[in-house]
Task: structure prediction
Amino acid sequence: MVKISVLLSFVFLIAFGFVVHGSSATKEVGVYEIKKGNFSVKFTNWGATIISVILPDKNGKLGDVVLGYDSVKDYMNDSTYFGAIVGRVANRIGGAQFTLNGTHYKLVANEGKNILHGGPRGFSDVIWKVKKYKNKGDAPKIVFAYHSFDGEEGFPGDLNVTVGYSLIGDKKLRVTMKAKALNKPTPVNLAQHTYWNLGGHNSGNILSEEIQIFGSHYTPVDSELIPTGKIESVKGTPYDFLEPHKVGSRISKLPSGYDINYVLDGAAGNKLRRAAIVHDNMSGRMMELLTDAPGMQFYTSNSLKNEKGKGGFVYQSHAALCLETQAFPDSVNHPNFPSTIVTAGKTYKHHMLFKFSTPAPYS
Result:
């Protein structure tokens, strides 16, 4: 039985993944699935990435509600961050630099003079170790682990990172991100970068989906999408989703679409609170997101253009939306923003809970 399991695992890796030869050891990149009833999620340990989420619609028909690729190899060559964990610091740091305790750190820029999602080789572009994997039972789960070395992309200190995904209750996906600073203080801000389309990854754009965002304020940005340091009210702006509105209802008032950080209502801390609710009327699917992070980036996949995805479907601008709970962008350069610094020996923690249902109206 053991030999058969090993053989099946080998065939599975050959079919969906492959072997990467590093300088010190051979590492495997593969595909893993956790499933509970008719709810299933697939991952690859390249970037600790979600590659599919299968859910029923209001008629019971199953569909994949996240954008992605057919091959793991495509994830290794993409520039979209489809489904990945991004870090060591998600979002942008202006000028790719910051000063901490009197020491100036110059990072590896990858978006003009700025750094985005951890740099050209951030956490989305590395092989994670599969630390735990249980694909059946009441709470199937997978836990990925990665060691980020001192100086990686310019960031100080060694960092041990884990990301756990588990299916709990009825159609709930829990995401737990942790990072322990081993020997130096360092900024940490991890984010989960899945592109969601509740109508199905190949159903077109998300402009008719309704969204409610529980953030009364946002952090304005300059022309390079770097926060100005101000915190302003959403009232009277296209960013006001305190009541449900269609994504496309006011998108024409923006240059290309939404790509902005919301200051979530309620005190950040250990308690989960609502960040957003998304509803697709055609499929009946609804997704509610809860988090303990202080902010959330709302992004409407503005930069997608002729991106060949699953089954040969070609994704275009606004084909999905991203809800990236996070600390505020460029926090290291804005003392008035909540700190992202993790001191040596301390552990960063970030939780997300996705609740899926169908059909379900707003409450």
Summary: Residues 1-17, 19-26 have pLDDT under 50 and may be disordered. The radius of gyration is 20 Å. The first strand starts at residue 18 and ends at 21. The longest helix spans residues 2-16.
